[in-house]
Amino acid sequence: MAAHRKLGRVFWIASVACAFALGFYGNRLKAAPRSPAAMREAVRAALSEPDTTVSLGRIADAASALTPENLPAAIEALEGQLTTADDAAVSLLCAAWARIDAPDAFRRVDKDWPHRWPRTVALREIVEVWALREPVAAMRAVDELPHSEWGAKEESIQRLVRSWARTDDVAGATSYVASLVPSSFRRELVEGIARERLARAGAEGLMRWAESIPDDAHANFKRIAFRAAAQQLAQSDPVAASAWVQKQVGRDYALDGPRVLAAAGTASKPGSSVGSAPIQPDDGATRSVAAPADDGPDPRIRTHREPGPTVPGA
Q: Which of 181 and 294 is assigned the larger pLDDT?
C-alpha cells in the first residue's frame, strides 16, 4: 500500500506539472484556431517527439486549441498512439476533452479504449474536470465502472471527491463518502475533504463542516470526520485545534481528539478531563495506537454502499 501511495504522489506531481504547462501555453494559442487536419497532425507530431519536455509543450498547445470541430481529429490521433503516449500527454488531452464534452469522453474511454492503464489515466482526468461542473452526473458514471476495473474506479473516486469538495456542494461530497463501505479508503477520502475545507474555508469552515455531520451517521462517520478535521487543524493552528477539542469533551465522536493532539505535538490544557480512548479506525475495530492501521481499499465500494447521512451545507 505504501508503494501505491508513493506512485500516487508521483502521478499527482505529474498532474500539477501538466496543469502548469496548460496554463503557461494556453493564452498564446487561443487566438490560433486549428483545422481538424492541422490538429490531427499536431497531436501526432507531439506524441512522436522524443524529448518529453518538448512533447508536453506541444501537447499543451494542442489541448489549449481544442474545439468541438477539431476534437474528433485530436482524439483519433491520440487513440492511434495510446500504447506509447506519455501519461501526462493523455491527461492533458483528456482534461481538455472533458471541458468540451465530459459525458461523451467518459463513455468513449470506458467502452472503447482497450488498454487498462491509459484508460485509468484518462478516466480520472475526465472525472476530475466533470465533477467540478456536474458532480452528481460524474458520480453516477463512476458508480457504473465494473469491479474488475478497481484501479480506474479507485482513482476516479478520489478525483471525484476532490473536485466535488472544491465546489459549493461540499455537503454532497460528504454525503457521498459517508455512503461508502467503511474502509481505509473511505477514511482517506474524508481526510481529503478535510484538507479542502481547511484550504478553502479556513479553520472555522473546517470545524463547521465536521460539526454539521449528524451524530448518528453510519459507522462512526462523524468520529472519522472529526478526527480528520482535528488532524488538519492541529497541523495548521495547534492553539485552535486544542481549544476545539476541549470544547467537544464528552462527545462520543470526539474521543480521538487527545491522541490527535498528542500525535501533532499539541499539549492539552492542564487539568483536562478529556479521556484517552483509543482511536477507532474506519472498519469498526478499536485499536490502541496513535494512528489507525491501513486496511487497503475495499472493492465492495459500490454494491455494498450504505445509506449516507443528510449533511447540511457546510
A: 181
Kindly give the residue spans of alpha helices, DSSP state H, lying in the chain.
Answer: 2-26, 36-48, 52-64, 71-79, 87-112, 116-133, 135-143, 150-164, 170-178, 184-212, 221-236, 238-247, 257-263
Cell numbers representing residue 20 in the block: 502548469
Determine how many CB atoms are found less than 10 A away from the CB of residue 155: 20
- For 214, residues 6+ apart whose C-beta sits below 8 A from its C-beta are 222, 309, 310, 311
DSSP string, 24-62: HHHTTTTT----HHHHHHHHHHHHH-SSHHHHHHHHHHH
Strand, helix or coil for residue 274 = coil
Rounded to whole angstroms, how far apart are CA atoms 201 and 197?
A: 5
pLDDT value of residue 12: 47
Residue 279 DSSP label: P
* Side chain identity, residue 311: V
Q: Is the dihedral of CA 264, 275, 184, 139 positive or negative?
A: negative
C-alpha cell of residue 141: 458514471
CA distance 60 to 66: 10
SS3 label, residue 181? coil
203-238 pLDDT per residue, tens: 999 999 999 999 999 889 999 999 999 999 999 999
The Cα–Cα gap between 264 and 297 comes to 26
Which amino acid belongs to residue 143?
Answer: D
Residue 276 DSSP one-character state = -
Closest Cα partner for 21 from 53, 66, 68?
53
Q: How far apart are CA 301 and CA 307, in angstroms?
A: 12
Q: What's at 113, amino acid-wise?
A: W
For cell 469491479, the residue is 147
